[in-house]
Design goal:
Helix content: 40-55%
Strand content: 15-25%
Strand order of the largest sheet: 8-14-13-11-9-10
Radius of gyration: 24 Å
Distance between the termini: 65 Å
Structural class: alpha+beta
Number of strands: 14
Number of helices: 20
Largest sheet: 6 strands, mixed
Shape: globular
Length: 557
C-alpha cells in the first residue's frame, strides 16, 4: 500500500511540475524525462520555476533543480520530503525570510534608524560586494572603472513628456534607481532608498532624419559618453543613474549610465526592457502589464549574505577550493586595479551553438557546464598546467522568491572553481563542472573579498561569465517603437574576463575576452581564445572524445 501511495504521489507531483515547467520554458511540450537545462532553462528561469513551485507548497530549492533536472527525477526526490526540508536544505533565510527582512528598515539598527535623514523609503545594509566595488572605485585613478554604460537606437516617435513619465515609473518600480550609498555615517555601510530623488534626464535634439545629420547624432552620443567616463559617478547621491536621449523626428537613442555597485548585467537588461515597455505603453495609451517586483529583495539578499559570512562550512569549502597557485600573473607587482581596457572576441554561429546544445544533452549536463569545461581546459593548456586549474565563475545569488528575476540590483558573486585534473573526455570534464557547481551552490553567496582574505591573495586570474539574454525577447511584443542597434561599455578589475553570451543585443552570440594589456599581451590572449574556440568545436563534434586529442589542433600543429 505504501508503495502504491508513493507512486501516486510521484505521478501527481510529476504532473504539477510539468505544468509549471511548461509555463517557464516558452510553452514547450515538456515530457517527464526532458532535461530542464536541455530545454532552454538557466539560473534565472530556474529561480522562477522554484519560486512558483514553493508558492504551490512544494518543498523545493534551487539546488534540487540542479541535481534533479527532469520532472520525473524531481518528483521522486520530493515525494517523501517534508516541506521543512526545503528550508533546511537551503537555509532558513532562503525559504522563509526573517520578519526583519520583510519590512522596510528592518535590518538597520535602532540607533542608525533614528539617525537616518528624512525622505527615505528604506535603508538596507550594503553587501560585501557593493562595498568592495565602491572601495576599489574610490581608490582608483581610473574614472571609467565599474562605470556601466549602455545605449540603444529606437525607431519610433520621441515624446519628451511621455518618456520622462516612463522613466519616473521605472524609478518607482525599481528601488535601486532611487538609491545612494553612505559608507561612513552609520554603524555599517548602508544603501539608502529615497522616496523621490528626482530624475537626471538630458535630451539633445537633431532636427531632421537626413543621412547628413547622422554624424551630428553620433557626435552628440560620443560627447555624452566622453563626459560620463571622464568623471566618476557620485554614488553618494540619488538618483543612482544618468539618462541621455538624442532625439530625431523618426527615431531616438537612449543611453544610461550606472555604477556596477547598483546593478549586475542581467539587471541592466531588465531595466532597459522595462523602460521600453513603459514608454511603448505610454505612447499607445495602454497598460504596460509588467508583473510586480518584490520590494524586499535587497533586504533578503543582504540577510542571505550575512548567513553565508557566518558559515564555518562555507569558509572551509572556499579555502579548499581556492588555495592553489595562481595560473600566470604576479598581480602583487601592481599597486592599482588592472586596467582591463582591451578586447578580443569571436562569434558562435547558430550551427555551432546547436551542436554544443546537442553535445551537452548527450553528456547529460547543462550547456553552461560544457562550455565552462572547455574554458577550463583552454586555461590549462594556456598556462601549461594539467591539474589544479582554478577559474573564477560568475554565479547568481538572487533569493528564491517570486519575481526575483525581475529585480534590479547587484545579486552576483564571482567564486573560484577548481578543476583538479583536465584529462578524460569532454563529457567527463563537463560532468565535473556540473558537480563543482552543485557543490558550490549552497555557498555561492560567500563574498569574493572574504575568499581573498582567507588565502591572502586573489584566488584566480581569469573569470568566466555565461549569460543567456532571453529577457530581451519581451521587446518583440512592443507596438509603437522598435529597438535596433545596441552598444555597451563596462570595465571591471579582473585581469581577464571571458564572457560567453547568447542573444546579447549588442554582440549576438559569441565569446569576448576583456583583459589588461599590462598583464596579458594581445598575442597570448589570441592564443587563449584560439584554444577555447578549438575546444568548443571539438566538444560539439564529439563529447565522448578525449579532450587531449584537441591539443595539437588547437595549437595549429
Amino acid at each position: 500500500m505504501r508503495e502504491n501511495a508513493m507512486a501516486w504521489t510521484e505521478r501527481r507531483l510529476t504532473g504539477e511540475l510539468l505544468e509549471i515547467l511548461a509555463t517557464h520554458l516558452a510553452g514547450q511540450e515538456i515530457r517527464p524525462d526532458d532535461d530542464f537545462y536541455a530545454m532552454g532553462g538557466d539560473s534565472l528561469v530556474a529561480l522562477r520555476f522554484v519560486a512558483d513551485a514553493q508558492a504551490r507548497g512544494l518543498p523545493m530549492t534551487l539546488q534540487d533543480i540542479l541535481f534533479h533536472p527532469t520532472a520525473a527525477e524531481l518528483a521522486a526526490e520530493l515525494a517523501g520530503r517534508d516541506p521543512a526540508d526545503a528550508q533546511e536544505a537551503e537555509g532558513a533565510a532562503a525559504a522563509a525570510p526573517s520578519p526583519a527582512a520583510a519590512e522596510p528598515f528592518g535590518l538597520v539598527t535602532e540607533a542608525d534608524r533614528e539617525a537616518l535623514p528624512d525622505g527615505l523609503d528604506d535603508a538596507v545594509p550594503a553587501t560585501a560586494l557593493q562595498i568592495g566595488l565602491l572601495y576599489v572605485s574610490q581608490l582608483s585613478a581610473d574614472s571609467t572603472l565599474y562605470q556601466d554604460l549602455v545605449g540603444v537606437e529606437v525607431s519610433g516617435r520621441f515624446d519628451g513628456a511621455l518618456f520622462r513619465d516612463a522613466l519616473a515609473a521605472l524609478c518607482r518600480r525599481h528601488t535601486m534607481l532611487r538609491s545612494s550609498f553612505d559608507l561612513g555615517a552609520f554603524s555599517e555601510p548602508l544603501q539608502l532608498v529615497w522616496s523621490d530623488p528626482g530624475l537626471l534626464l538630458t535630451v539633445d535634439t537633431v532636427a531632421t532624419q537626413d543621412p547628413g545629420d547622422d554624424a551630428k547624432t553620433v557626435g552628440l552620443m560620443e560627447e555624452w559618453k566622453r563626459r560620463r567616463l571622464a568623471e566618476p559617478l557620485d554614488t553618494g547621491r540619488a538618483p543612482a543613474f544618468r539618462c541621455h536621449v538624442v532625439a530625431r523626428p523618426e527615431s531616438f537613442h537612449v543611453m544610461l549610465a550606472l555604477h556596477h555597485a547598483f546593478v549586475d548585467g542581467w539587471s541592466y537588461a531588465q531595466l532597459l526592457v522595462d523602460l521600453m515597455v513603459l514608454y511603448d505603453a505610454a505612447l499607445s495609451g495602454t497598460e504596460p502589464g509588467l508583473p510586480p517586483v518584490p520590494e524586499s529583495g535587497a533586504r533578503i539578499f543582504a540577510e542571505l549574505e550575512r548567513a553565508a559570512l557566518d558559515s564555518a562550512e562555507a569558509e572551509r569549502f572556499w579555502h579548499e577550493e581556492a588555495d592553489v597557485p595562481a595560473l600566470r600573473f604576479d598581480r602583487g607587482r601592481f599597486d592599482a586595479a588592472p586596467d582591463q581596457s582591451a578586447h578580443v572576441a569571436f562569434d558562435i554561429d547558430a550551427d555551432l551553438l546547436a551542436r554544443l546544445r546537442r553535445a551537452a544533452r548527450q553528456a547529460g549536463v547543462p550547456l553552461r557546464s560544457l562550455v565552462l569545461a572547455a574554458h577550463a581546459w583552454s586555461l590549462g593548456r594556456w598556462a601549461d598546467r594539467e591539474r589544479d586549474v582554478v577559474t573564477g565563475v560568475v554565479v547568481n545569488g538572487r533569493p528564491e522568491i517570486i519575481g526575483s528575476d525581475l529585480m534590479a540590483g547587484l545579486f552576483l558573486n564571482t567564486v573560484p572553481m577548481r578543476f583538479p585534473g583536465l584529462t578524460g573526455s569532454w563529457a567527463d570534464l563537463a560532468r565535473h563542472a556540473l558537480l563543482s557547481e552543485q557543490r558550490a551552490l549552497p555557498h555561492r553567496r560567500y563574498p569574493l573579498g572574504r575568499i581573498e582574505q582567507l588565502i591572502g591573495r586573489p584566488p584566480f586570474d581569469v573569470a568566466f561569465n555565461f549569460t543567456h539574454f532571453h529577457v530581451y525577447r519581451r521587446l518583440d511584443e512592443l507596438c509603437e517603437i522598435r529597438p535596433g542597434t545596441w552598444w555597451a561599455y563596462d570595465k571591471n578589475s579582473f585581469p581577464v574576463v571571458v564572457d560567453f553570451a547568447i542573444e546579447s543585443p549588442e554582440a549576438g552570440t559569441g565569446v569576448t575576452y576583456s583583459y589588461a594589456p599590462a598583464l596579458a599581451g594581445e598575442e597570448e590572449i589570441h592564443r587563449l581564445a584560439g584554444l577555447y574556440r578549438a575546444a568548443l568545436r571539438a566538444a560539439a563534434e564529439d563529447p565522448d572524445r578525449e579532450a587531449d586529442d584537441t591539443a595539437d589542433l588547437a595549437e595549429g600543429r
